[in-house]
């Protein structure tokens, strides 16, 4: 056997060298056949050194960080990245995002929901036939399960927000009151503790006595495993390639099917019962009602839990900020006797501008989800403020780069990467009454309200943690109640330090995914929790 390295190298590489011209010719031919041909009316195409799949591979590798990098290099407010014979249109400025919202009938969210219900939530053929019927009002009516569900969800959130708020306040108190009592100091894993107790309290308030998460230990972990893998369910053969995520999803399906079979929705909150009623009205089977109900976990938990974690982290990492926010919160607390403290959550929303500004700043930094739409027909998108129009071709994806806009210096100032708890105080000025005292005693400001800078300029469409337009998050007011309640109780009642007794230091961010909600911590963090002097053994109660 000839073991001469040089000869082995020659014999191995020669066929490759001979094949290179053939591969080059094949690539050139494929580029003419596969590469999308840009219509001159379309947005500018961003090139990639690797044709056809280069953008896709980089996007898969970098996730949510890819669009900001492209924007910083090319500075296009709207651009297209070619992928095979298609393209993804990226909207990187608020004006283009607002233009998209005006074209909600042809730039569809529901078309993507249809695909998700099939590939992520595994709905059967009969259910998909129902879900696919008139998703965008193609027949000129609002008939169809997706449109009816959309309308009823918005109506139900408005009608039942007081019930939902009261339920959560009642459900949360038993989780925090046993913590660090009788002068004890407890060491907890902050992310896991918060994730667990928030998840159970929130779902108890919605699903009632048959809450699947409360009745099935371990199901809470499955929710987060499912979310970790949600983008991979769009790939082929998830049962073979995605065993852990696939099994977690199936356990969730089984638990929520049991909830549906036992008519659990009849004893749940209005928002859950309305969802079941709409499904049954349209002939969805009980099993598929259970499958579909798992989608609510992504609306209820996946974003609110990490927002709460990061807001707590930012506050307890800055002693000066913590003291200022604590003073605001304490003004919203009353006591009927020495053993009880009552937190008024309405006052948290209306009389705590720094707390609310800090919450919005946390959302700006941590909630940078890309918002997706599908082009159902050729659509001309017009940016009136810049006098530009571009053609978006049917059958392609539109993505709004919130992670670009949330860090744009022209909008949020010269230091957009830095957490500034006071950045949104000018926005909160809208919550003041026009009286001599200047107190924040007016109506609570919508948590999705447009950002107003220090000079009074309103940047419509720039602040996007709850989406926007026709599909803005209907549960944002409930989420605000949950976040402020949990944070206020911790700030008013507890001190949090590092496990060694030193200053609390937040963990780093987890790398972002393609389909991502609020960013999570890259790791958990051990902390010491103790009650503050004077409230060592009080019972905490919340009211609206």
From TrEMBL:
InterPro entries: CYP450_monoxygenase_sec-met (IPR053007), Cyt_P450 (IPR001128), Cyt_P450_E_grp-IV (IPR002403), Cyt_P450_sf (IPR036396). Its cofactor is heme. It holds the Pfam family p450. Heme binds at residue 473. This is Cytochrome P450. The keyword Iron applies. CDD domains: CYP7_CYP8-like (cd11040). SUPFAM superfamilies: Cytochrome P450.
């Amino acid at each position: 056997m000839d073991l001469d390295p040089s000869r082995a190298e020659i014999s191995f590489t020669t066929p490759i060298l001979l094949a290179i011209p053939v591969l080059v010719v094949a690539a050139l031919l494929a580029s003419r056949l596969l590469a999308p041909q840009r219509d001159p009316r379309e947005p500018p195409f961003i090139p990639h050194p690797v044709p056809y799949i280069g953008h896709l591979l980089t996007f898969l590798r970098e996730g949510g960080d890819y669009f900001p990098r492209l924007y910083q290099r090319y500075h296009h407010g709207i651009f297209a990245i070619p992928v095979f014979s298609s393209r993804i249109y990226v909207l990187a400025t608020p004006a283009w995002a607002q233009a998209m919202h005006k074209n909600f009938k042809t730039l569809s969210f529901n078309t993507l929901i249809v695909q998700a219900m099939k590939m992520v939530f595994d709905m059967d053929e009969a259910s998909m036939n129902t879900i696919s019927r008139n998703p965008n009002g193609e027949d000129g009516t609002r008939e169809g399960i997706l449109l009816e569900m959309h309308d009823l969800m918005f109506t139900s959130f408005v009608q039942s927000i007081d019930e939902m708020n009261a339920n959560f306040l009642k459900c949360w108190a038993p989780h925090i009151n046993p913590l660090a009592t009788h002068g004890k100091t407890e060491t907890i894993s902050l992310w896991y503790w918060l994730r667990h107790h928030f998840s159970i309290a929130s779902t108890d308030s919605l699903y009632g006595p048959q809450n699947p998460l409360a009745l099935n230990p371990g199901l809470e972990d499955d929710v987060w495993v499912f979310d970790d893998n949600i983008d991979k369910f769009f790939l082929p053969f998830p049962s073979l390639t995605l065993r852990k995520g696939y099994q977690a999803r199936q356990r969730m399906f089984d638990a929520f099917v049991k909830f549906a079979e036992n008519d659990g929705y009849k004893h749940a909150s209005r928002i859950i019962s309305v969802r079941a009623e709409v499904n049954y009205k349209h002939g969805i089977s009980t099993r598929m009602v259970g499958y579909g109900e798992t989608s609510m976990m992504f609306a209820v938990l996946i974003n609110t839990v990490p927002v709460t974690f990061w807001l707590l982290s930012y506050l307890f990492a800055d002693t000066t900020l913590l003291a200022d926010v604590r003073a605001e919160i304490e003004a919203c607390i009353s006591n009927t006797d020495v053993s009880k403290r009552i937190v008024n959550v309405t006052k948290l929303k209306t009389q705590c501008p720094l707390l609310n500004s800090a919450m919005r700043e946390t959302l700006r930094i941590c909630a940078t989800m890309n918002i997706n739409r599908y082009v159902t027909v050729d659509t001309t998108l017009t940016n009136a403020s810049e006098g530009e129009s571009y053609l978006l071709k049917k059958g392609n994806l539109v993505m709004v780069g919130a992670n670009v806009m949330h860090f744009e210096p022209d909008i949020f100032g010269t230091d957009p990467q830095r957490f500034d708890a006071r950045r949104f105080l000018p926005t909160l000025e809208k919550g003041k009454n026009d009286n001599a005292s200047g107190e924040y005693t007016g109506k609570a400001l919508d948590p999705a309200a447009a950002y107003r800078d220090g000079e009074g300029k309103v940047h419509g469409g720039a602040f996007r943690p709850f989406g926007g337009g026709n599909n803005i998050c209907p549960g944002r007011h409930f989420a605000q109640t949950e976040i402020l309640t949990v944070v206020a109780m911790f700030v008013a009642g507890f001190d949090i330090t590092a496990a060694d007794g030193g200053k609390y230091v937040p963990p780093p961010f987890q790398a972002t995914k393609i389909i991502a909600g609020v960013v999570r911590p890259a790791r958990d963090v051990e902390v010491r929790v103790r009650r503050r002097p004077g409230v060592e053994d009080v019972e905490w109660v919340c009211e609206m």
